[in-house]
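[stage:ingest] chain + small molecule (iron/sulfur cluster)
[stage:ingest] validated
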Amino acid sequence: MTPISHLYLHVPFCPTICPYCDFHVVRRQAGWVEAYLKRLLEEAGQLAGLWPLELETIYLGGGTPSFLRDRELAALVEGLRAAVGWAGEVTLEVNPGTVSRARAELWRELGFTRASLGIQSLDDQVLRFLGRTHSSRAAREAASYLRQAGLRLSADLITAVPSQRLEREVASYLELDLEHLSAYSLTVEEGTEFARRGVEVAEEDEREAFYRTEELLAEGGLLRYEISNYARPGAESRHNLGYWTNAFYAALGPSAAGHYPSERPGELAQRRTAATLEGWLRGEGGEVLPVSPAQYASDAAFMGLRLERGIDLRALGGRTGLDLLGSWPQLLRRPLEGGLLELQGGQLRATRDGWWVLNQLVTPLVEWSAG
Ligand code: SF4
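[stage:predict] done
[stage:export] tokens:
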């Protein structure tokens, strides 16, 4: 069986809940973190018994993993090392309000190699609008402590926020000397505080920010390699590349979703989701969804076309046993003729114009895989 090379851990605790957030997050409550850590390490032990693991990357996301206290994070790392080992790239998602020089050094000593700093903006007015509790000064300080501790640094940026000045915003980010950046336009998801308040983002503003951000970051040496992600050459996130190349990854923690190999007849993989925190703490499982070879291929296209380099249809055809080079050009004839997709030497990729409408482009493949 193909070994699993990536591991995601969901840490659901946050100091406050942001008004646009639609992740599974909770505020810290007495006894929950202890119960969470106990259950998480039990799960890690079971994981190693069930699947072959050859971990290249581990990612602690959330929520706010850096909101865990030092002794809690140290216990998590120690338990994880004992249960599943460690990896070459280990990322900790960090909230600026939780960083100090000493903590950044501790995270490096614990074995983290990379920090993903959740700053969203370096403009105090935008931060207030987003309901963030940190200031741009705290974000700059946090970035500097993390770099000085020797952690590789990624940060995130929210664009298309009303009143945001993009040129100034990107210039401030470039001063942080990042090697990686994730940029997303503000989206107002149903059920969030922003949706209740009636916040809206005009599509034209979103589109303009999408293309302008790329130009501005490229001038500073951060190149777009995925729809929402930029890196200095060679500093791409290996963990996220695992998702975009449809690799197998395990997931631990409440509401975490994993992608596992399967050797059952008619299946190439299984997607498994976990229950939300209270159910997960009681040991409840989530859903197990079988993935057929055709679904695997369409998932790979859905994720892989987000990448600048696109997907190799020959390799994907070999993995799934399907003649994709024979059947997909016909299914994708209109976007290929319309200049939204390109197919060269078996490599299928979206063009700049195609990225903006990618979900529509892959619809025929999703329908094909369901039929
Ligand atoms: S810090 Fe991140 S995960 Fe936590 S509530 Fe805010 S957006 Fe959601």
